[in-house]
Amino acid sequence: MSPNPEAWQVEPLTPHIGALVSGARLSGDPTPEEVAAVCALMDRHLVCVFTDQALTAAQLRDLTAHFGPLFLHRQDEGVLHAEGVPEVLEMRKKPDGARLFGGSDWHADVTFQDPAGYLSLLHALVIPPLGGDTCFASTIAAFSALSSALQDQLRRLRAVHSYRGPGGAEEPGLTALHPVVRRHPVTQHEGLYINRMFTTRFEEMSEAESQPLIHFLADHMTRMEFTCRLRWREGYLALWDNRFSLHYPINDFTGQHRLLLRCTALEDASLEQLSRG
Ligand code: OGA
Ligand code: MN
Prior knowledge:
The structure is a single chain. The protein is α+β, with helices and mostly antiparallel strands. It has helices spanning 32-45, 57-64, 139-144, 148-155, 207-221, 269-275; strands spanning 9-12, 19-22, 47-50, 80-82, 85-93, 117-126, 134-138, 158-162, 175-179, 181-183, 190-192, 199-202, 227-230, 237-241, 245-249, 258-266. It starts with 8 loop residues before the first strand and ends with a helix. It binds N-oxalylglycine (OGA) and manganese (II) ion.
């Protein structure tokens, strides 16, 4: 990293979410001050995009480990682990590919377990000349725009998040129960913790009973006012907070090649305390 986080230039993308950060170097071994500076930017912007980075898979893993325990994605259709670095996923879409990882709906990463995903780091190696942008949405802006009557009801609910197998069944170990409203431990803002990819139902309610409210919330959460859109450049390193944002990569680049490396840190209360002093 650059020796002095105060020299980083931060350009917010929208009032609610997203910032471009230039002048940092994240490939070395960061000092506690640099990790704290990244955390402070994340608390403020939820999504930070560091320009002009060049990290190997191992460097991305080591950087991510400063933010929490590393998530190990299970071997799955369309998932490729970086060679020798299983904690890092190679997100590759070839010119003849159809499916884009994460591109089927708005979501947050790894909400189907406890501890759930905290920060995802995504580093762009090959980007199409046009297309393949990623959109992000602030769940804090979404929650604060709801009526206080609905906010009060949601604060009392918990929801089931599940990584479904091919048969659509909830699988043990890939299912978790989370509060529907979470409070940010630093800013104290409340955010809606629901996503259509993994949230299947509310606690003690059937899926049929739950789906109308899940769909209303999922639609509300992605209103344009709460979003930003990232047009990638090679060398960008995006960090997003899965506790308080959703994301959606746009699959509009048929015939083009796109390759990024991803690593995800899980929530860990004790580590969070340490890195925030
Ligand atoms: C992810 C994901 C975003 C992208 O890495 O979790 O959803 O832009 N991908 O590829
Ligand atoms: Mn994702």
